[in-house]
Amino acid sequence: MADNNSLPGGESLQKQIKDQIVTVQILVIIFLCINLLLIVIFFTKECFYTTTRYILFAVTLLSDSLLLFMSDIFVIINQFHITIQVWLCIIISVVVLVYVTVTPVTLTAMTLERYVAICMPLRHGELCSTRNTIHCILIIHCLSSVPCIVILSTFFVSASLSFYKQYQLCSIEVFMFYIWQQHLRSAIYQLQFLIMSIILVFCYVEIMKVAKAASGEDKKSSKKGLRTVVFHGFQLLLCLIQLWCPFIEAALFQIDYNLFYDVRYVNYILFYLVPRCLSPLIYGLRDEAFFNALKNYVSFGLCKRNTI
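Structure for Mu-type opioid receptor-like, as requested:
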């Protein structure tokens, strides 16, 4: 970094980096505040924390908030070239590796819930009970832990004991000693997202069949379910592209550092921040019950402030 700043135009690059860091902090704070507000709304009504789709929605909010916070730590550490011991980096990376996958897996579970609600309405109450939802959340976290377990297992086998006490820039690449580890990581993520994509397409096709055959309120509900599945598909697509970003960035790093930095910044905004702000829009604003609860909560807060 110092070498780049000593070159002509280095000061402008340093200013650009500072501006981008400030922009990221503002966006992260905004998204965290929105998520926190929606989490508070979730606990205001019993119908929310006893209904499967709202419980899963709360899981995505918590997952996205934790991921935003931890990934922001990664951004700050790397931008200011702060080195930490590898064992501490492992702890931070475990959280990021698990929760980068929790949201897309939860979105898949939410898609399945919509499929059951629309295509199997008589069994919805049985299959989507609160007890089964808790079990589903545990399964989601188990499935999301698979890439983390594989990546760290290959690292533990390859690394010497002295390496854990070394100071390094904290990133997932620290755990990759060999090229086959990167290929293995990519293969696991691609397989996961292929399975999730197949589930999403299957649910979309089945809901579309019901929507064509339905009439009146059923047709309206089915079309709304289709739109929700499409939104989930768009989120999954952004999460899938996110997995390709490290490989693109690694290639650009060998060509041009400035281009590498700009692309990495854009990737973080588009494929880390944007997918994490879509959930509040899909379920927080499009859902009538949740939107009304949000509106009443904000109105009550304003009235209380004016009274004081």
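Confidence is low (pLDDT under 50) at residues 1-9.
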